[in-house]
Specification:
The chain has a four-stranded mixed sheet with strand order 3-2-5-6. Strands 1-4 form a two-stranded antiparallel ribbon. The protein is elongated, with a radius of gyration of 15 Å. The chain is built from four helices and six strands; from the N terminus they run ααβαββαβββ. The two termini are 19 Å apart. With 155 residues, the chain is of the alpha+beta class. The protein has one domain: 2-Layer Sandwich (TolA/TonB C-terminal domain).
């Protein structure tokens, strides 16, 4: 159930037709005009998928993480770094694990760039229902992932 819910709100611009509905953000932060980030390639597959960690739910942890990474010749994220985190270690680790599961279409590298040297950034937001209150980091819309989790019963 959580996997389906998380996939349903995953940013459509990132995953295209792999998901069924777009996230509802009323106050999205516009992408910086001077951003030097390479254009985010499309995701070919999700691997095991996206989930909200049970331990984070029990702790009612929410937050956002900005990840930097490169894409190797097999379409996998490499050299993943946490550039900024306003979240617990549990959520930061989960954001990295989610990114490691993605398989990206390998973009054609400019002739002047070494293979796998393009740097990408992605913002991951974890929220417990109701979702849509946390803002993403300042990245293009196609570099945003929203993971919405159901609150545990009895809280």
């Amino acid at each position: 159930m959580i996997l389906i819910r998380a996939c349903a709100i995953l940013c459509l611009a990132l995953l295209g037709p792999l998901c069924t509905s777009s996230p509802a953000f009323s106050d999205e932060i516009p992408a910086a005009e001077s951003q030097s980030q390479a254009v985010m390639p499309m995701v070919k597959s999700l691997g095991k998928g996206i989930y909200y960690p049970d331990q984070a739910k029990r702790l009612e942890a929410q937050g956002r993480i900005l990840l930097g990474f490169q894409i190797n010749d097999r379409g996998r994220a490499t050299r993943i770094s946490i550039e900024s985190a306003e979240a617990s270690k549990i959520l930061s680790d989960s954001a990295v694990a989610i990114l490691k599961e993605f398989v990206f279409e390998r973009p054609a590298a400019p002739a002047s760039a070494a293979a796998g040297s393009e740097q990408y950034r992605i913002s991951v937001v974890f929220e417990l229902e109701p979702c849509g209150g946390l803002q993403h980091f300042d990245v293009p819309k196609d570099a945003r992932i929203s993971v919405c989790g159901s609150r545990l019963r009895g809280r």
